[in-house]
Amino acid sequence: MTKYEQMYHDIAASIPGAKESKMFGALCIKADNGKAGVLYWKDDMVFKLPPEEQVKALKLKGAIIFEPSEGKQMSGWIHVPRQHSNLWLQLAHISMRMVSDLKK
Fold first, then answer.
1. DSSP code per residue over 42-69
2. Tell me, what's the pLDDT at 89?
3. What is the pLDDT of residues 6-48, one digit of tens each?
4. For residue 15, how far is the Cα from the chain centroid?
């Protein structure tokens, strides 16, 4: 297990009501309503963020709109590279608050 994967597990454990699961064959964190908000992707993290947080996150060097396969962007999901791992916990909490409010 890489240090980044361990960070993912630590972040998941820090979010009340969060459940670890899988999405696109990768580890993800889901809220009680079953909605995913965080994805661990190739030693990076991907977050489903509200519009104003998307704008901020996309200003980070290397951050992009997430593409699970080339040319297939996922609206609202921002891929934040490991060089910004110091921000992952904060972004995960923002993401999980948002998806927790979504209906099943």
1. TTEEEEE--HHHHHHHTTSTT-EE--SS
2. 96
3. 999 999 999 998 999 998 889 999 998 899 999 999 999 999 9
4. 13
Cα gap 66→73, rounded to integer Å = 6
Whether this model's pTM surpasses 0.85:
yes
Residue with tokens 């990076």: 44
Task: Answer whether 62's CB lies under 8 Å from 83's CB.
Answer: yes
* Residues 63/56, Cβ–Cβ less than 8 Å: no
Structure tokens of 59? 């200003």
Cα–Cα distance measured from residue 91 to residue 1, given in angstroms and rounded to the nearest whole number: 22
Q: Which residue type occupies 23?
A: M
Answer whether 27's CB lies under 8 Å from 40's CB.
yes
Contacts of 57 (CB under 8 A, 6+ apart): 47, 49, 63, 78, 80, 91
Q: Is the dihedral of CA 29, 23, 67, 45 positive or negative?
A: positive
